[in-house]
Amino acid sequence: MNLTHTDTADTRIITVDENRIDAAIAISFKDRMRELTDKGPARIVVDMEQVDFIDSSGLGAIVAAMKQVGADKSFELASLSGTVKKVFKLTRMDTVFTIHANVDTALGGGLANAS
C-alpha cells in the first residue's frame, strides 16, 4: 500500500498512490492510514486523485480510517474520480464525508485563515 503525506500548518495531506482500493489492499490501507493519522495535524485530507476503482472492502477501509481518526480530528476526501464519486453517491457515503473537488479547494479555507 503506497501512501505518502505532506503537512501544512494545520493539515496533513495523505496521497493514495494506488489506482485501486479493493479487498486486496484494504487491510494494509487501514494499517498505513493508522500510522499516518496517529500523530500530526488535527485535519486530514486524503487525496484520491489516482484512485479510479473502489469496491466495498475499499469503502469499508476508508470508513474504518475515518473512525480510527476519532472525533477530535477532521477526516476529509479530495479529488474523487467520476467512478469513485459514483460509489460514494450510491452508498450515500457522500453524506458522511466532506468531499472536496481537489486538494487546492480543500486547502483554500486553511490558507486563507493562515495569512
Task: Walk me through the structure.
The longest helix has 14 residues, at 56-69. The chain has 115 residues and is an alpha/beta fold. The strands form 2 sheets. Strands 1-2-4-6-7 form a 5-stranded mixed beta sheet, sandwiched between helices. Mean pLDDT is 92; it is low at 110-115. Helix content is 41%, strand content 24%.
Please summarize what this structure is.
This protein is of the alpha/beta class. It has helices at about 25-35, 55-70, 80-90, 105-115; strands at about 5, 10-15, 20, 45, 55, 75-80, 100.
Biggest sheet record? 5 strands, mixed
Strand order of the largest sheet: 1-2-4-6-7
Helix residue percentage: 40-55%
Give the number of DSSP strands: 7
The outline comes out as: globular
Radius of gyration: 13 Å
Low-pLDDT residue intervals, each spanning 5 or more residues: 110-115
Layout: helices, strands, pairs:
Blueprint: E1 3-7, E2 11-16, E3 20-21, H1 26-37, E4 43-47, E5 53-54, H2 56-69, E6 74-78, H3 82-90, E7 98-100, H4 103-114
Parallel strand pairs: 2-4, 3-5, 4-6, 6-7
Antiparallel strand pairs: 1-2
Helix pairs in contact: 1-2
List keywords for this structure.
alpha/beta; 7 strands; 24% strand; disordered C terminus
